[in-house]
Amino acid sequence: MVTSKKLLFFGFAVVVVFAAIATLITVLVLTNNKEEEKNGEDNESYEGPTFGYLCKDSICVRTEINLSNINDSSSLNVCRLTCNTDIGTLWPKPSGSVAFSKRVAPINPNQITISTNNFKGQTYWQVAWQRFREMLFRKIPTDSKSNSRGKSILIEIIAENDDIDFNYDTFEGYKLRIIEDSSNIYVYISARNFYGTRHALETLSQLVVYDEFNEELVILTYADITDEPKFKHRGISMDTSRTFYPVDVIKRTINGLAMVKLNTFHWHITDAQSFPLEIKSRPELTRLGAYSPDKVYTTSDIRDIVEFAKARGVRVIPEFDAPAHVGEGWQESQLTMCYKDSSQTVGWRGHFDPTKDELYNILEDIYKEIVESFKPIVMHMGGDEVAIDCWNTSQMIKDWMNDRNMETNIEGFMRLWDYFQRNALSKFDAVSNSQLPIILWTSRLTEEPFLTEFLDKNRYIIQVWLDGNDAKIKTLLEAGYKLIISNSDALYLDCGVGWWVNEGLNWCSPYKTWQKIYNNRMESIAGNYIDQILGAEATIWSESIDEGVIDMRIWPRASALAERLWTNPTTPWANAEARLLMNSQLLVEVGELAVEPLQLEWCVQNENECPF
Amino acid sequence: MVTSKKLLFFGFAVVVVFAAIATLITVLVLTNNKEEEKNGEDNESYEGPTFGYLCKDSICVRTEINLSNINDSSSLNVCRLTCNTDIGTLWPKPSGSVAFSKRVAPINPNQITISTNNFKGQTYWQVAWQRFREMLFRKIPTDSKSNSRGKSILIEIIAENDDIDFNYDTFEGYKLRIIEDSSNIYVYISARNFYGTRHALETLSQLVVYDEFNEELVILTYADITDEPKFKHRGISMDTSRTFYPVDVIKRTINGLAMVKLNTFHWHITDAQSFPLEIKSRPELTRLGAYSPDKVYTTSDIRDIVEFAKARGVRVIPEFDAPAHVGEGWQESQLTMCYKDSSQTVGWRGHFDPTKDELYNILEDIYKEIVESFKPIVMHMGGDEVAIDCWNTSQMIKDWMNDRNMETNIEGFMRLWDYFQRNALSKFDAVSNSQLPIILWTSRLTEEPFLTEFLDKNRYIIQVWLDGNDAKIKTLLEAGYKLIISNSDALYLDCGVGWWVNEGLNWCSPYKTWQKIYNNRMESIAGNYIDQILGAEATIWSESIDEGVIDMRIWPRASALAERLWTNPTTPWANAEARLLMNSQLLVEVGELAVEPLQLEWCVQNENECPF
């Protein structure tokens, strides 16, 4: 007991001594701080960044910082997140209601927890959640002294179902709410399904920015957003025949699509110039058709890409273009014609010979493997640029047609094309579970009288590459077809650079600017038939594009398309410009993409002052 | 002795036994080979690359390989090196005489030795030699099983002098000879100086290609080349004010220039939008004018770049643009006007107030540090886009002019400009050793009557950014000025993409294709005055270019300019096309540059068949 008392006394003494020391230190520190403050005031000394941003009339104004304005100034990212009348620099802008505070709180990216009612253990959800966390960490510069102070984030997800089907009936909307208390940020996300919640996380990630002044991530302290897309089909098409893109290029492109809530990756896999699609039952197609043995998409590559995309809210639509645009890979098949025939007006485009029965057996094998690897919800059968001048050169074809009472005039050759399309489709249907929707490019076949005679409007969706004001679009709409818009006067991202003919600018020059894409309203194209517009796609034909340049051809112009289709804004491009510059930075920093620069850095630093 | 005899006998026995074993093995191997051969013949089995190249009529034709053509076929690189009527895929093509064999020999890149008569221990030479070796190794793919068989290379360099001055009198020609014997390749290079020998190594490196069939480097077994440039001034200009490019971007660009024997890096360092040039005696210029503190070229950065360039046969020409195109950095100086004044027709361009004496003191400080860091052989003083509408707004300037009997009309304002230019030049001359040549952009000042009144043709070189057919060019030539051609209708590499005005294509759209640049003959611009053309520069103004995209804006179009100026071919672009595609590959593989793709891979694989 004595010992115990002694210890107690000793302990008390220690506490007293330490308390005394602590008090002394506190007094000294306070005195010191006060003196420093005083010195600061006396000398008007300021040692920090030269420039900061002041929010004036919803514009972030670059201003030299001094002691009198330092408390009102913030870093560019923080100012842009809080200063404007919309919400931050969200891209695409929400289409529904938005409320938000103009305050930010620092967060601790290592302290984010999430609860879901539905998705536990689901693979897609794990990918989405992992990706969300990675996106936040990528916002932190590598040389940042960012520490782990800041609030924890608790995210609660409520989804109505755990369905991962992703078709034209999938509702992609969501609600997102952010609130804070003294130690945490709470985020509530509700949506009908995985895809809506995924989009909500995308939005949430854009409401977190890196504050370079304090070297920390910050988030808005309050937000309430209701959001859904205006169009169902929002995407790009990529051409892997003219140029083979490695799998990682395709993946980073899909990642970019996910960042701006585009939901469609239309894959124009094959064409005349190369055949990079592994068909295990027909190995000669890639052996003879690939640029080289390593420039082949294997079945496992494709499954990998399709799953990668779906976990990012992106559906992959395979295109096997036929009966034209075939060549390499078919050299020894005896089933193609006109390829590399310089006397033909068809130029580069080989054509299948539709009269050969063996053709349809090979097509069935191709379709079978495509269906197995892609599990598509819609199939693109091409139908681009068929030239009857090609078939017309073959006496065998003309004899075959005569035997079947087809005249060898335009009507007859269109019937021959119809014969091909019906046979190809029946082979496709034979290997797919259900009668999937089929997409075809606009062509002679999609003009009257052939259109309504040969193409069932309940089966076929038409992808329009005509100019946006072409009268043929109205004909399609009046006949009741659903359309995907890729008007080449606005949405062909490969236009305007050099080509290899005519000392040469390519056929669809000039370059399509983001402003043109942003202003490319579906209503201007479809008028009262707007409900028949599924959406739109920007195309990236790859005659003059390779893996070094493709990012810049796509970005940030695909972002302009994304806002056109998700938000369908009525305001002009000029209102979106400062925000698109920030989206470009995000695509670079978080998406690890290269972007075409729209403006010089001066314009990023001086919001809405460029040009003067 | 006994021991020794025993050893001798033992040794003899060992030799006999080993010889017996070796013979046995040889017999077994031969038998085995024979059987394999026999099997091969029987089964017609061929297991190698699907496609190879056959040389037919000087064209490499892609052909499916089989047992009957395997001995005639080669890889693409080897075929292109040996098949044509020129020599390999050299870019730029030699301007002098060429003889060569169509055979190649494998080389061992680890066994290259060099001897020089003059350069031992010289820094530039060490860089050039090290760089040559690196270029060879970069040709070998990382996954190559390349081994060290192949011949050794012995290079002997004879230079007339060890002078490293690099001015307009420097002769850049060289002679290069390759011969072989049974174990070695001998290379003889002779030139007047370091720069000629450096160019010869560049040529030599292009005569070594990687043979992907045999996974080894090969070289032509015989060549005899005499080569020299047709024009003295061959380069690009880069704008680091609108966009700041990190030092490594500038270095890789200069490396690219060296690869195609361009010899000039014209550095448009400052402009209105940012001031990234460290001036130690005037630190406020970068403090207020740089985009950020890390976007500054320090004095040591500049010295590093200048030396880096010179060792690659590239001279750096600094431009300090004045009296217009100033703005950021000068905010607190009271020496500029009209900057950011949207009411001015001058738009973005701030102007110096030439009446302020203090201005010339600051200019002297700037020039002093430029001369010290750049050690220029020629100075660019800008003189671009001066607007008298700006000076005309200032009553103080007009009063100052009246006091000096200058009228406030165009003649008067041009005299004011002349006043500025004379004062600025005298400050420049005060801090530089000799009266260096001065370059100015074409402007009102370079038109008559001001031209011959104000600008001494023996002192000033005029850089032309007018269209190539502008009559003002003839005026300049008739008046006896030396010109550098940068006609904006062909040599402005920033044209044709989006801009931030007018839903916007930029002012000099469309895009300038390589064909246009290749066909941009100096003789068409200068006629009989061709001797007054020092050369040409492609410009890369950076309002819509950043470090992600700049490589592709420059390459391979700068290569087209390189051949125009080095070789000055009389043949049309179409003859150079297949070779330029190979040069593009070289820029990517060896230069580690990104290039704008000119054509699809099909066209690389099918020489001269594209398009059909």
From TrEMBL, chains A, B:
Pfam family, one: Glycohydro_20b2
Catalyzed reaction equations: Hydrolysis of terminal non-reducing N-acetyl-D-hexosamine residues in N-acetyl-beta-D-hexosaminides
InterPro entries hit by this protein: Beta_hexosaminidase_sua/sub, GH, Glyco_hydro_20_cat, Hex-like_dom2, HEX_eukaryotic_N, Rhodanese-like_dom
Spans through the membrane: 7-30
Keyword Electron transport among record annotations: no
Keywords: Glycoprotein, Glycosidase, Hydrolase, Membrane, Signal, Transmembrane, Transmembrane helix
Organism superkingdom: Eukaryota
Domain Rhodanese: 474-509
The protein's enzyme class: hydrolase
Active site: 385
CDD domains listed in its UniProt record: GH20_HexA_HexB-like
One cellular component (GO) term of this entry: plasma membrane
GO annotation, biological process: carbohydrate metabolic process; glycosaminoglycan metabolic process
GO MF terms, alphabetically ordered: beta-N-acetylglucosaminidase activity
PROSITE patterns linked: RHODANESE_3 (PS50206)
SUPFAM superfamilies: (Trans)glycosidases (SSF51445), beta-N-acetylhexosaminidase-like domain (SSF55545)
Enzyme Commission code(s) on record: 3.2.1.52
Family indicated by similarity: Belongs to the glycosyl hydrolase 20 family.
Protein name as it appears in the record: Beta-hexosaminidase
